[in-house]
């Protein structure tokens, strides 16, 4: 029997089609490639569209395929490791051989929420720069960044081109070299606005990083980044330390 044929037998047709599509996704098509439409698959393999939906849905759930609203179904891109040290997104993508681009969606002086004001050490009700950016690599949306910046350390940030490396801009224009960060990582589902910017479904998996970054002991940035969970993973090296210290493992880390 041809491995790309679907026949009547003990194995359900949706399971046979699922195996065919799995081979296609893992062995034949490069990451990010479109697969045939439901209609084309139904005609090619002489099955119902319900059978096609069942097979495709299982592979989407497994992470081998991904749906893009209004565009179709694609083989999933391989996940990238989030780099756990203090490096800009722009430099990280270039090092991977990808072309980074940035869309600035908001840059305005606004009163930060209490948590951000506390992190930056600014008085309550004092405005700070609120910056929202969409980060892309080779045209693919990867992350949404929403950050607050200290108004006296980096004043009038909105006057500058914010589509490149922000860390390079801070160093070259303000003489601010970011040298320390404290970061918290968690997972959550995408809210409607973040999902729209990233081109994923509402509730889709995200890796979230909140990072407070300092220069010479002065907090400069309080930024939260929402990274696509289908394209990113975190790898950490864990070392056992002295149990008497109260810390059993230490993780080498920093920022994405």
Automatic annotation (TrEMBL):
InterPro entries: Bact_HTH_transcr_reg (IPR050679), Chorismate_lyase_/UTRA_dom_sf (IPR028978), Tscrpt_reg_HTH_GntR (IPR000524), UTRA (IPR011663), WH-like_DNA-bd_sf (IPR036388), WH_DNA-bd_sf (IPR036390). The keyword Metal-binding does not apply. Signal peptide: none annotated. The keyword Ribosomal protein does not apply. Residues 11-78 form the HTH gntR-type domain. One of its GO terms (biological process) is negative regulation of DNA-templated transcription. SUPFAM superfamilies: Chorismate lyase-like, Winged helix' DNA-binding domain. Keywords: DNA-binding, Transcription, Transcription regulation. It holds the Pfam family GntR. GO terms for molecular function: DNA binding; DNA-binding transcription factor activity. PANTHER family: MANNOSYL-D-GLYCERATE TRANSPORT/METABOLISM SYSTEM REPRESSOR MNGR-RELATED (PTHR44846), MANNOSYL-D-GLYCERATE TRANSPORT_METABOLISM SYSTEM REPRESSOR MNGR-RELATED (PTHR44846:SF1). This is Transcriptional regulator, GntR family.
